[in-house]
Amino acid sequence: MSKVVLVTGGARSGKSRFAEGLADKYAPLRGYLATGEAGDAEMADRIARHQGRRGPEWQTVEEPLKVAEAIRSHQGRFNVMLMDCVTLWISNLLFRCPGGAAEALAEVKSFAGGFSSLATPLIIVTNEVGMGIVPEHPLSRAFRDLAGEANEIIAAAADEVYVTISGLPLRLK
Q1: Is the pTM of this model over 0.90?
Q2: What's residue 1's pLDDT?
Q3: What is the C-alpha to C-alpha distance for residues 15 and 7, in angstroms, rounded to an integer?
Q4: pLDDT at residue number 161
Q5: Positions at the binding site
Q6: Angstrom distance (rounded) from CA 148 to CA 134
Q7: Which residues define the annotated binding site for GTP?
Q8: How far apart are the first and last CA of the chain?
Q9: DSSP letter at 1?
């Protein structure tokens, strides 16, 4: 079994930079599993900024839905893989799975259940979205709840868990 590290935090808390720093401790080639899609100009710019931080030692794998399969299919190809991020992944699942949140949560459980068979270290980035006000819209509440449950499941299965606040990482596990 290879090490699995979860990095969580709020928006713009430094979690992706911290996770990339953890991955930089591994020799190239490093894999970057991107779950986000450039659906608008702002997201395209955000993706470009993330790519600009990484150099040629990184190879990007884009997969918005089948992350467990993408990770398994690249085992041994990279010295480390970084998945960024869980919340974009579950948002994609929530909107595309016929079974909604229940099906998305089953995907998360299956994903975390496969950690013991990983041969390549995996660093996972997620957002902590449940620390604010209760959203007014039912879909927003469903997403917040799904994100919280997904983070709990992944954190329980991970070897290490960090939270970043104001650019500062704190090890929780």
Answers
A1: yes
A2: 67
A3: 6
A4: 98
A5: 9-16, 34-36, 62, 84
A6: 13
A7: 9-16, 34-36, 62, 84
A8: 18
A9: -
Q: What is the pLDDT of residues 26-35, one digit of tens each?
A: 999 999 999 9
Structure-block tokens of residue 142 = 């469903």
- Which residue in the list 2, 24, 47, 50 is annotated as catalytic? 50
Domain regions of the chain by residue span:
4-171
Q: Assess whether 50 carries a catalytic annotation.
A: yes
CATH 3.40.50.300 holds for 4-171: yes
Find all residues with CB under 8 Å of 168, minimum gap 6, and list them.
14
Give Cα 138 distance to the centre of its chain.
24
Judge whether residue 50 has pLDDT over 80. Answer: no
Task: Give backbone dihedrals phi and psi of 62, rounded to 5 degrees, phi first.
Answer: -95, 120
pLDDT in tens, 52-62: 778 889 999 99
Q: How far apart are CA 29 and CA 90, in angstroms?
A: 27
